[in-house]
Amino acid sequence: MSDKKRRRGDAGASATGRKYRPASRAEELRNQLKSDNEILASLRKICAAAQSSSSTSKTLTLSDLSLSSSCREVSDRDSSSVLQSIERSALDAARSILSGSGFSFDVPSRSSSNQLYVPELDRIVLRDRCSSRPFASLSTVRKATITARVLSLVHAVLLRNIHVTKRDLFYTDVKLFQDQTHSDAVLDDVSCMLGCTRSSLHVVASEKGVVVGRLVFYDDSDRIDCTKMGIGGKAIPPNIDRVGDLESDALFILLVEKDAAFMRLAEDRFYNRFPCIIVTAKGQPDVATRLFLKRMKTELKLPVLALVDSDPYGLKILSVYMCGSKNMSYDSSNLTTPDIKWLGVRPSDLDKYQVPEQCRLPMTDQDVKAGKDLLEEDFVKRNEGWVKELETMVKTRQKAEIQALSSFGFQYLTEVYLPLKIQQQDWL
Amino acid sequence: MSDKKRRRGDAGASATGRKYRPASRAEELRNQLKSDNEILASLRKICAAAQSSSSTSKTLTLSDLSLSSSCREVSDRDSSSVLQSIERSALDAARSILSGSGFSFDVPSRSSSNQLYVPELDRIVLRDRCSSRPFASLSTVRKATITARVLSLVHAVLLRNIHVTKRDLFYTDVKLFQDQTHSDAVLDDVSCMLGCTRSSLHVVASEKGVVVGRLVFYDDSDRIDCTKMGIGGKAIPPNIDRVGDLESDALFILLVEKDAAFMRLAEDRFYNRFPCIIVTAKGQPDVATRLFLKRMKTELKLPVLALVDSDPYGLKILSVYMCGSKNMSYDSSNLTTPDIKWLGVRPSDLDKYQVPEQCRLPMTDQDVKAGKDLLEEDFVKRNEGWVKELETMVKTRQKAEIQALSSFGFQYLTEVYLPLKIQQQDWL
Question: Which UniProt keywords apply (chains A, B) (predicted)?
Fold first, then answer.
């Protein structure tokens, strides 16, 4: 132990302690790094290719696949057209009542039996099954009433041109809604009925994402320059419909799972060395961050590279960004960003970068099960590289966090790991 | 039910549905509102008084109370002085070893038996008990080794002038630390030993707070104008030592418990009508937000008004801002903001504003117990108004969220509730 102590003591004398530690592989990899200009040149080619291919090949839609009649998706619509739709449905109800037939809403089913994974689109959409919600029926009168009330509340919100949360909506009529799950569920119904996104209804989720780097955009008419947002970054706005005029000279978007890695990248101003936009939802992606990523990808046509933990959870997070959650499948085209590249930390990186044994964590049985479940998912099966990586993870039963790279020095992530990944175009 | 339906239907026809709902008290209160200019004039007086009193009366310190020898607090120190202290402790150890007496660290005890609530300061501080951590003892050799290692790592971080997270620190030597709780605990020890804050060690927590409104500051030399941060606001930087040059023409700081209320205030640009700085940690306050609030309060000398849920949890959040958490009592002077005013939502507001019964929630037994526990806390006892409010809460067994005000219209919070509160100087 006294020997160990002495070694530790020595390490403290160097700036990072790296030299004195068994990290020769780390140094070897550092030496493989080419000049930034060389790395940037190849990056520019990739970026240009991505932009030209996305400008020539248009994104597939349901109608390209002749599915638009049998499947249902919502889209962003402006306030005035949503207001018109609501008014039309009120008039229809009034007419129906006056003609003596009472009234009823046709509500698309959002149950899993009505969901469909479309491989060509790489996302889940809704089939076209609808159910009737008549007012004059004991079993549906309550839901029909709630539906009418939510329609009227959304109408009021849109007229005022403000945004509210689901919680706000619930509190406007607790007596009727009784429980927030009831108003939330009907709100999703209303989205589907009107064929518009929840953002178009001006009902927003709270935001927790942040963005920093080579991006300029407008948030409610304030110009935001994300290279001038210090280390804290800019909080991603909850209301995507007030975000506009995205401009960027970035070569890629770096999607980061965690806060700590985001902070490292922001403090080191990684985007100055490799022009990029860095974004994180700090864990499980929220709707605002997913909308924002989708918007960036669509408008700026940049490749998206993901930096997540090497564990099933990291991959699940990627799947939410890419394929959406089953819960909101009717809105999958607006919420999902297909074609995200898995940059790291990948199971194969653990050996390639010789991450020390003690920085790897044993996978629990539950982790292994989650990994095996992922191997059955369509979005994984489609990508051979991902399958191999996942198989490695499940076989070795080892996982690791992005932070594990700190064992080679606090800035190894920004100084060696990421530059080398980019130089070698090492993503899947 | 059909009667109800019709009523709901009618409500939808007006913009907010307010007119047709039993909210006459809400209207009555709206009519009590004076002109903004009148409200602002009285606000300016309060603000000026706060600023002149805080410039004449200096903040009490431990030495004013003759407690500096028997109590211990840490302070912000610049990198070079912390580096010197670490080098000095290394030299001391070397000298001690060379003289044949081995070496040992003197570590202040952070246990609750060594903590003291100082009413004059209104916060918890550490007493002066220290314990010895000799290297040449089986029971302390591991902790002494970890202490030396953490000192050397912090030294490396400070030399590079970067910031890292506790997790980064842990991963630099998983073999030695074994579990993050071990390196975290020693990090706090090192803070106390060196008499500096954790921020001074450049070990930062991830941030989750956001700020918007009449504040300009520098985040790592980027100028941030918080009136131009759209609705999303500016993410509060994790590293407070890179925050500087705060400027503001605000009349108060509005501390908001929750995200949804923050969004309402930001979207309505409340700070344009009543010059203020709006800040939230989105629930339980994180260290970065607490440091930021303290910094604003100290440098700008503005009153802090708090908008929290009317439940024991809301008050607990206030207590963390005001008195700190017991866990970090050695750093209480930097983390705590005394003299926060409880603006709302207060238990007495529920009747005063006639919040509908169905928007109030019954308190669970656990809630009631938490409320009763709070009545025993010194920071509550010191404020008669708070005691009364808490007693009302416990007696009525009712709680309510800020969002409950939405029952009078989505913008009732910004258009009536807050302006009236400010006009009536209704805070405790």
Answer: DNA-binding, Isomerase, Magnesium, Metal-binding, Nucleotide-binding, Nucleus, Topoisomerase
